[in-house]
Amino acid sequence: MGGGGEGLRGGGGWYKSCEFPTTRELSATVGKQFPQCYSSTLDRMKLRACVLLAASLCSAGLLAQSPGAISKESALARLHSCTQGKWSDRECSNLNASLDVLIDAYRSGDKSVLPELFNFSYLTEFFDDAILSDPDGFLSALGTLPAGSQKAIAEGAAGEPFRALRMDRCLALKAVFEAVPASSPNRVPADICLRALKEHNASLFLDYFPPDTFTGSAAKLKTYQFSRVLYGFDESPLWRNPPDSKETWRFTYIGTWGRSRTVTLSVRRDGTGTVQLKWRDPETGNPPETGNLHVPAPIEISADQVRRFYKTLRKAEFWEAPSEVRSKRLGLDGAEWLLEGVTGSRYHLVTRWCPGVESKSVQSLAFADACRLLLEFASDSLEGEC
User: Fold this and answer.
1) What is the helix (H) or strand (E) element at residue 195, kind and residue range?
2) Angstrom distance (rounded) from CA 39 to CA 81
3) S-S: 190 plus which of 79, 177, 297, 383, CB 3.0-4.6 Å?
4) Collapsing DSSP states into helix, strand and coil, what is residue 12?
C-alpha cells in the first residue's frame, strides 16, 4: 500500500515516533489510503478508530517512508493531476513530499507555486508563515480566488480543527490583517481572513464563560467550540452583563449535522419579553454551520409565556443543576444543548448532549422542554428527539 515513497511534512513526522497525531496529520497519511479517516470533522469514535489504525501502521513501519528526490515540475504535475481528479485515490495517496517540495520552493523565493498550494486548505502552519513573511503577496494571490476558496483558505490559516492557535501567533496574524489600508485591493481578503481568525480563536479574545465553568477532560475543547459558535452568531458573553441589565436566557443548539442556532429571551420588568432567533446556513466545515448568518426580527412574547418558561425551568431545577455531566453519547450523532441564564448578578450555565434521550429523568426532560419552549416562542422547532 501507499507506494510513491512520500512521507509526512513537518517536524520530523509523528509517523516516525508514532506519537499522537494532529487531525491534519492523521488525514494526510492514513486518510488518503482510508477515506473514512479523511475528514476535518471526525467525531470522537471515528477519531479513536483512525488513531488505532495509524498506530498499527506505525508499528508495521508502513507509514515511515522516506521521501525521494522530487523536482518542482514533477511535484506540480502530481499535485495538479490529483486536484483535477485525473488520478485515482490510490495514485494520489501520500502527497506530502510533493507539498514539501513546493513549500521549500516558496520559502526560497518562488512565489509561483502558491496557487497550487492553495488547493490544500489544511496547510495551516505554512499559510501562517507565508502571511507573516509576505502579507501583500499572500493576500494579493488569495484575492484572485473565488469567494468560496478564499473562505476555505482563510479558515485553514485560522487554525487546525478542534484547537486554537497560540496567542502570540494569533495576535501577530491579527495585526497583519488589521494593518491593511482600507483603500488597498487586499482589504477584502484581509477582512475574510480576519473574520475567520477571530471566529476560530474566539476563546482567546472573549471570555464567554466564567473561569472553571468546564472542568472535565474535554473542558478546553468545550470552551473552544462553544466560544467559536457563539462568536459566529455575533453573541456577547452573558455572564459579564451589568447587574441592572434585563434578565436574559440564551439557548444555543450545536448540531453535529443539523442547523445550529441560538435563541435569546430578554425579560422586561413587567414580565413580558422578546425572543431573538439566529441561525447560519450549513456548509462543509467544522462546525458544519459556517455560512451566512440569519437574524430575523425579534418576536414579542406575553407574560403568560414567560411564566410558562419559568415553570419548566423550576421543574428542570436549572439553578441547582451541574453545568456538565458525563455522557456516553458525547461525540456521536446528535447535538450539544447549552442554556445560559443571567438575572441580576446571578449567572448559571447548563450543557447537555441530547437531553431527554440518554437520560429520562424528570429534570432532564424538563430541561429539554425549556429549551424547546424558547424555540417555540421564536417560531422555530427541532426535528426528532435531538
Assistant:
1) helix 187-200
2) 21
3) 177
4) coil
Are 135 and 176 spatial neighbours (Cβ–Cβ below 8 Å)?
Answer: yes
Whole-angstrom Cα distance, residue 8 to residue 29? Answer: 7
Kindly report, residue by residue over 211-245, the tens digit of the pLDDT: 999 988 889 989 999 999 999 999 999 999 888 88
d(CA 107, CA 122) in angstroms, rounded, equals: 18
What's the start-to-end Cα distance of the chain, in Å? 41
- In the structure grid, which three cell numbers stand for residue 243, read together? 447587574
- Grid look-up 435531538 returns 386
Phi-psi region of 213 (alpha: psi -120 to 50; beta: other; left: phi over 0): alpha
Query: pLDDT for 111-170, tens place per residue?
Result: 999 999 999 999 999 999 999 999 999 999 999 999 999 999 999 999 998 889 999 999
DSSP state, residue 244: T
Task: Give 181's contacts (C-beta < 8 A, 6+ positions apart).
Answer: 187
What letters, b where the CB count within 10 A reaches 16 and e where it falls short, cover 77-107? ebbeebeeeeeeeeebbbbbbbbbbbbebbe
Give me the pLDDT at residue 327, please.
72
Smallest CA-to-CA distance from 353 within 368, 373, 369 is with: 368
- The answer to whether 342 and 242 are in contact (CB under 8 A) is no
Q: How far apart are CA 63 and CA 349, in angstroms?
A: 45
